Amino acid sequence: MLKIRLQRTGAKNQPHYRLVVTDVRFKRDGKFIEILGSYHPAGNYPFIKIYEKKIVKYLKNGAQMSETVRKILRKTKTLHKLFELKKGIETNFEDVCEIKIEKKQKSGENLE
């Protein structure tokens, strides 16, 4: 069975993740079939970059998503497009979808 999940890359305390499609029997950071995007939660400019058409291809073929990937696809509005596709509504999927993540302001920081 195929699963779309995150694979951790990056240095210590600087996580970067890849969205990959893999067999459920492989380790988290082990072999994968294809890279479907990337997720960079840390740093000055956190962002999500996904390949929507590739994700749709694997989901149509029966791949399952992890909960974290489901949340990421919800942020990029890809999950909403998938539900519209299931209802029969014509939807355009982009080759590459990239969004910047708004950083949460710490309670002690000033806006000045």
What features would you describe in this structure?
It is a single chain. The longest helix has 10 residues. By secondary structure, the chain is α+β, with helices and mostly antiparallel strands. Strand 1 and strand 2 form a beta hairpin. The model has no long low-confidence stretch (mean pLDDT 85). 25% of the residues lie in helices and 33% in strands. The protein is built from three helices and six strands; from the N terminus they run ββββαβααβ. The chain has one domain: Ribosomal protein S16 (S16 Ribosomal Protein, Chain: A). It starts with a strand and ends in a 12-residue tail after the last strand.
CATH superfamily: Ribosomal protein S16
Main sheet record = 6 strands, mixed
* Principal-axes shape call: globular
Approximately what portion of the residues adopt beta-strand conformation?
A: 25-35%
Instruction: Tell me which CATH architecture applies here.
Output: 2-Layer Sandwich
- The percent range for helix content is 25-40%
Briefly note the CATH topology name.
S16 Ribosomal Protein, Chain: A
Helix tally equals 3
Order of helices and strands: EEEEHEHHE
- Within the largest sheet, what's the order of strands? 5-1-2-3-4-6
What is the average of the pLDDT values?
85
Which structural class matches the secondary elements? Answer: alpha+beta
CATH top level class name: Alpha Beta
Number of strands: 6
Gap from first CA to last CA: 52 Å
Gyration radius, rounded: 16 Å
Query: Could you say how many structural domains there are in total?
Result: 1
The low-confidence runs, each spanning 5 or more residues with pLDDT under 50, are none
